[in-house]
Amino acid sequence: MTRGEGSRRRLSRMPRQGAIVAVLAVAGLASSFMFTLVVPIQAKLPELLSASRDDTAWVVTATLLAAAVITPIAGRLGDMYGKRRIVLVLLAVLVLGSVIAAVSPGIIGVIVGRALQGAVTGVIPLGISILRDVLHESRVDSAIALISATLGVGGALGLPISALVTEHSDWHVLFWMSAGLGAVVFGLVLWIVPVDVLRTAGRFDLLGAAGLAIGLIGVLLAVSRGNEWGWLSPAVLACGLGGLAVLLAWGWLELRIDDPLLDLRVAARRAVLLTNIASVAIGFSLFASNVAYPQMLELPSGTGAGFGLSLLAASLIVMPSGLVMMVLSPLAGRLAHTMGPRLLLLLGSGALIVAYAYTLLFSAEVWQILVANILIGVGIGFGYAAMPMLIMRSVPQTETGASNGLNALFRSLGTSAAAAVIGAVLATMTAGQGDAQVPTSAAFQMSFLLGGAAAVMALVVALFIPTGSDAAEPRPSLPE
């Protein structure tokens, strides 16, 4: 019996498909939870770690950089060496990073641990690719919608949980909690998720991986630290322009080698390219709400722009958006299966436009912000479900891991840009409040306007994404 026949025999005896979906959904929740893990202690980090605020900003930046760099690379590794295997590696890295951060008394260990935690972001696109490999065709769309929803649900649920932990326990418990979560998910994936059958032949492109990492780090550093360093400072210009130059050279190289890290010809197909552009806009629109709404809710009511809620109370107002994403995932799957995923992207973009328009008109009461967050959940739930479906209908099955990883990278670029732009708006449009400068009502209005504009861009781009035979997979899968 050949190795391929043995793999297929094991696949025929795999656990129930519902169990596989459930485990991969839990893995996605664990992954997205890492981005809100330190939010409750972020303002206190300089005191807790005896470091400057500029230095403690790296506790967040390191996670962002690691997630953006590792995700597309992990996707390619999954296509070549097995998606489940790479998921297990990423979960092991999460556990290692969590333990390092938990036992570290100083800032260096916490930054290293947080960078390692960021690597687990690659679990979500890999999990989506696994679904295409192992599920019956009729269940794939609904399962993808559920896994995509975890991108918002993990953060929405994780924020109040983290706030509760930090209110009643030592901050190190956050990292011990994430280590335990990673270990449990590792065991579940090892037990439930079947071994891959489809693999991509060839050698791993180490030079391409290094070039992509260097270029992305440069660009993302410029975007994420521009507010602190100054947008025209030598450091930001060197990182940004240098990163772009490296990425251009990387693209030139990738088009000329036999086994590229990412097949840019596949990425340049109209359906894939437009979906990735829409992903930047959707990611921006999502993170604009993640930055603006909590600040508005927590800002003292005496400023005229805030509601004076505690972090826990504010997180409970934001949390329903994630719950809505989870509840809508079955509907998203059915709509995609019957009417196509482009409709989902159009509906999601439209819901985001309505959410921001509503907020511009009605934001004087807490319940109005709650309604706006529910609309955001509808928009992101449909939009995030649509994008991997559009990608996988347009690429060979042997490249789903790398292509989904690239799509996740474009979402990260959108969220990074939103963090920088909305952060700059709220930091510059301020008024004096005692000894502090706080954002004005006009600053929040501008933030919501920018979030809505990004949603309009996503809607317009979605209108030009081809459907049906125009976006069909152009070539068969490679034989094993």
TrEMBL record:
Statement: the UniProt record of this protein carries the keyword Transmembrane: yes
Matching PROSITE patterns: MFS
SUPFAM superfamilies linked to this entry: MFS general substrate transporter
Cell location: Cell membrane
Keywords assigned: Membrane, Transmembrane, Transmembrane helix
Transmembrane annotation, as ranges: 20-41, 56-74, 86-108, 114-131, 143-165, 171-192, 204-223, 229-250, 271-293, 305-331, 343-361, 367-387, 408-431, 443-465
InterPro entries: MFS, MFS_dom, MFS_trans_sf
Topological relation to the membrane, as annotated: Multi-pass membrane protein
UniProt keyword annotation of Iron present: no
Every Major facilitator superfamily (MFS) profile domain range: 20-470
Chief location category: membrane
PANTHER family to which the protein is assigned, alphabetical: BLL0718 PROTEIN, MAJOR FACILITATOR SUPERFAMILY MULTIDRUG TRANSPORTER MFSC
Protein name: MFS transporter
